[in-house]
Amino acid sequence: MANLRAGVIGIGAMGRHHVRVFREMDGVDLVAVADPGGDPFRVAGKLEVLPDAAALADAGIDLAVVAVPTRFHEETALTLAAAGVHTLVEKPVAVDSAAGERMAKAFDDAVLVGAVGHIERYNPAIQEVRRRIADGQLGEVYQISTRRQGPFPARIADVGVILDLASHDIDLTAWAAQSTYTTVSAQTSFRSGREHEDMVLITGRLANGVNVNHTVNWLSPMKERLTVVAGERGTLIADTATADVTFYENGRVQTEWDAVAAFRGVAEGDVTRYAIAKREPLRTELEAFRDAVLGGENRTVSMAEGLATLRVAEAAKRSAQTQETVRL
Hints:
CATH superfamily of the largest domain: Dihydrodipicolinate Reductase, domain 2
Order of helices and strands: EHEEHEHEHEHEHEEEEEEHEHHE
Structural class: alpha/beta
CATH class of the largest domain: Alpha Beta
Distance between the termini: 45 Å
Strand order of the largest sheet: 14-13-12-11-7-10-9-8-15
Number of strands: 15
Helix content: 25-40%
CATH architecture of the largest domain: 2-Layer Sandwich
Strand content: 25-35%
Oligomer: single chain
């Protein structure tokens, strides 16, 4: 079987990594790149840097990655869908849910794989947490908390911290819990003089009863990427910056010290840090995309799922503006 012909549009800070991984993947040949801004990281090599999505599609590609700024996602993706190209769009899927709906419909109608690059779902730590939840290690899951903090990335200009960063946490939380958001409440801050929010605190509840909260900002000098899943048998903590997973087990030995037992709740048990395989999330994501295009198991984040995440993010923005809890 001939290799799939791949293209990438947007070869900036994120797109250059898609170019690199495509070149290293089995079953795929990178045959075209496009970017109206040229090739700032010099990743095109011998390939001509094409001007737009139409020119990319004309290169005879089977699949493409869209890594242009969010405001251009819809136009670019619709052009590729009309040309019959399977497409993975970097997150968030679109600038708003109306655009996301049009994109999802276009790929469904054309019977094409339309995927969204929610890369944190492919982080080995989150994959391991999801597997252990499914295996029943925690028993009933009570709460999922995330913290995603760090300095402001100068490359982000067209969206705020909710769409850029919190969307990661919304997607991975819904996926890990295998449930959907039913309520969202949020508080935002604008501290850096930009039109978009740079800090958000989100609380919410999933349809299966799990409580969630997300602390996200661009205002911290330290970089933090933590997901904490608390359940009836203990707590799993995933550090997606290092791809480490630690399990804090509820204790089996009850304390005999009455003064402590009165307020301790569950007892502290064993702490285990798991050794897991640490594959690059982007490689895992693009392999899943390739396999779906080839007709194998579809392990991509679908545009419908990306749209659901976008709707939660929009609800968080609406809650912050109205100071009311939003029901989805």
